[in-house]
Design goal:
Blueprint (H helix, E strand, L loop, with lengths): L2 E5 L2 E3 L5 E8 L7 E7 L6 E7 L5 E3 L7 E6 L4 E6 L8 E8 L13 E4 L3 E5 L2
Parallel strand pairs: 2-11
Antiparallel strand pairs: 1-3, 3-8, 4-5, 4-9, 5-6, 7-8, 9-10, 9-11
């Protein structure tokens, strides 16, 4: 089965940076999507960023665009999320997820993802 393991969470100061990693295994599809979601206390899970292995396209939610960067190391089955200019709104548990090809990938529909990691917590505080 597909497994995903997140790491890199922790405490960051406002304006600081953090890089999350998602190491995955067991994906048998040639083309698939890896996404980052987050869930803050008392809020719904929301999409943050995703990348398609089909065309290497990347997508971001409006709230993180220009501050976050998703990338993939194709030799290591790892996807990264570089988070810069962090603020308190980024405090959440971050989850890595995998799905197949998606017609509307930019909508970050959780139902499109069939495998999830257990999450890594990010806290932004001074």
């Amino acid at each position: 089965q597909v497994q995903l393991v997140e790491s890199g969470g922790g405490l960051a100061q406002p304006g600081g940076s953090l890089r999350l990693s998602c190491v995955f295994s067991g994906i048998t599809l040639d083309y698939y999507t890896i996404a980052w979601f987050r869930q803050a206390p008392g809020k719904e899970r929301e999409g943050v960023s995703c990348i398609s292995t089909a065309d290497r396209s990347t997508y971001y939610s409006a709230s993180v665009k220009d501050r976050f960067t998703i990338s993939r190391d194709e030799s290591k089955n790892t996807v990264y999320l570089q988070m810069d200019s962090l603020n308190s709104e980024e405090t959440a548990v971050y989850y890595c997820a995998q799905g197949g090809l998606m017609r509307k990938i930019e909508e970050f529909n959780t139902d499109d993802y069939t495998a999830w990691g257990e999450g890594t917590k990010v806290t932004v505080s001074s």
